Amino acid sequence: MRKPIIAGNWKMHLTLAEAHALVRQLLGLDAKSVDVVICPPFTALSSVAALVKGSRIGLGAQDLFWEPQGAFTGEVSPVMLVDVGCRYVIIGHSERRTLFGETDESVNRKLVAALKHGLLPIVCIGETLAQREGHQTFHVITRQLEGAFTGIAEADGARITLAYEPVWAIGTGRNATPEQAQEVHAFIRQWLGKRFGSSLADSLRIQYGGSVNAANAASLLQQLDVDGALVGGASLKADAFGTIMKAAVEAKVKAVV
What is the pLDDT of residue 257? Predict the structure, then answer.
């Protein structure tokens, strides 16, 4: 049974005071049966790290650069993330791909760097609305998977979490139906089986992301191959995030029963 993983991507939100207030609320939630990750903006990582130290909440960054140091103005290295207390890092989010020109190649370079420095990557993949309507979803997912996993060994693959995020559902209030999410997650797991074998395919966790909220989380998380959620706006509210965490745990309990 894959342990659910619920990650909150705060994006470009919250001042330090707001971040601290939210974390204090999150620390009161029950996180025993689910892996919980929060990904604040870079400016809050250090102080949030101090607040969650010793707790069940894992700290993640929203991006990284693939070099450990150098003349790369505005970038943050994997070494810096580890030093500040990060355990996780999001790679290849659709906003990075569409707004900042990230490619499958750059996603791969970042993934290799994250693994090299001991971080646990959350790698995002997903199609645009035009690609879905053009019946290209599985072609796009295959291309992104092949690009991201170039040169990745099975041992390293076991440290990765994938996040299927249909671009057309991110921040739009429109999310994939549970059946649509399951269909793509099952396809991803099938691809992993062909690439690495059934052991890794069965154990690697695949999150769903895209307008996940307290109201729709349960129906999505009950799907066989949906192992958690990468949460955007709802992760900025402790009660909503807590509801999503609870839904993940209950979904897996039902699966066992």
Answer: 41
State pLDDT tens for residues 122-152. 999 999 989 999 999 999 999 999 999 999 9
- CATH placement of domain 5-256: 3.20.20.70
Catalytic-residue membership of 127: no
Question: Is 135 one of the annotated active-site residues of the chain?
Answer: no
Contacts of 72 (CB under 8 A, 6+ apart): 65
In the chain, the DSSP E strands lie at 5-9, 35-39, 57-61, 88-91, 120-125, 161-164, 206-209, 228-231
**E strand intervals along 10-86:** 35-39, 57-61
pTM above 0.90, yes or no: yes
The residue count of the chain comes to: 257
Active-site hit among 102, 127, 165, 185: 165
Domain ranges of the chain: 5-256
Compute the radius of gyration of the chain from its Cα atoms. Answer: 17
Q: Can you tell me the distance from the alpha carbon of 220 to that of 182, in angstroms, rounded to the nearest whole number?
A: 8
Q: Which two tokens stand for residue 101?
A: 């020109």
C-alpha triplet 102, 108, 111: angle, nearest 5°? 105
Q: Which of 18, 93, 179, 185 is catalytic?
A: 93
Q: How far is CA 138 from CA 21, 120, 145, 170, 185, in A?
A: 41, 25, 10, 18, 11
Task: State residue 5 phi and psi, 5-degree precision.
Answer: -125, 120
